[in-house]
Predict the structure of histidine kinase.
Amino acid sequence: MDKIVNRKQQIKLFLLEFFSFLIVFSILGTILFVFYQRNTYTSIDNTLSRRATMSANSTNMMGPPDFQTITIYYNAKGKIVNSQNLSNMSSTVAKIKVNKSELNKIYNIELGSVTMRGVYLKVNSQMMVNRQGKTLKKNLQPKYALVLKNITPEIQSINRFKNLLLASLIVFGLIVFIISYIISRINMKPVLKAWKQQEEFVDSAAHEIRTPLTIIQNKLEGLMTKPNDTIKNQVGAIIMSLSEIRRLNGLTSDMLTLARANSNVITLDKAPVDFSSFMSEILEPYKDLIKSEDKKLVTAIDVNKPVLVDAKRVHQLIVILLDNAIKYTPKGATITVNSNIENRNLKIQICDTGIGISDKNKKSVFKRFYREEKSGNKQTGGNGLGLSIAEWIVRAHKGKIKVTDNPGGGTIFTVLLPVAK
């Protein structure tokens, strides 16, 4: 079911990106075509307008057609009066019907395979002469003129440009199709990863919560079957129930911390910290505990200047790593805590000579609810969220954390936190 939902989400994202890109390219292509066509027609119309002005005000019959335009003069009855000056164009232009409703308008005229663009106007001059300078007879006096320009090459250029845009749109459509598919796959990876992490988190959280709740329920039900017993008689069940309740409180607190961290609700409160004194305060309560478990604590704190960190979160980080080292270190072993400034980074190392972590599982230790024990038992306590919180604290400080093998056996957790220059 989840795969089907994820597949549908990916298809929706792909189609959204594909059509978005396609619409953008289509709009861009349309704008380019409109501007190209408009500029082409503007240039043609400017030429026609200049020639039309000359023809309307000229007192002399215009000569042969020039390279760009031809001018046809009509008398009052609509007959051509300068056919002798039109050369081999006279038979073609004779097919053009005079339409006074189109007066002073620029429009296209189709003549077979040739497209002409022209303007029909009234001649203003009253004294028109022919090419020899003789005054024309009254019936040959031009009253109207039609200025034409052959725009077939321009129409062909516009069509070629349109075809080029269409071809480009098809090519870009294919490219966009591929890019959209790749982008949708890339964009879905963090979504699928988050989805998978959420599922794993919910499953693991449900498992972690179910066990203590079951224990508490069983103990309470057992107490109800013995209403006449004293607290002294049932102290074991009460202690175990309280222990599981404390573990539930710790679990919910850790889960809440991670949830807030992922939603960026928690912000760091950085301030200068005297790190040597700070570490001494953290390690002091652990000295007796480590000694009582027949283990040895070695410290080497070499930080002689204040560092800018969130003291509360770094305290939590060190406690998590130190607790982890104590849990997995057998009796008679050594736990070492080192700290110094290295390449403008505050370097903190917590080493143990315990059971170590396999190479296969080193990348997994920071995952939520992870435990090195394959069975996931609770012998060492904890809920598998500590190192996830530690990683978040380091990441929030824009630092790095890594886990390596201790040459003498065991594990080394190394933390690098950027500090002020």
Summary: The first strand starts at residue 69 and ends at 74. Residues 192-262 form a domain with the Helix Hairpins fold (CATH 1.10.287).
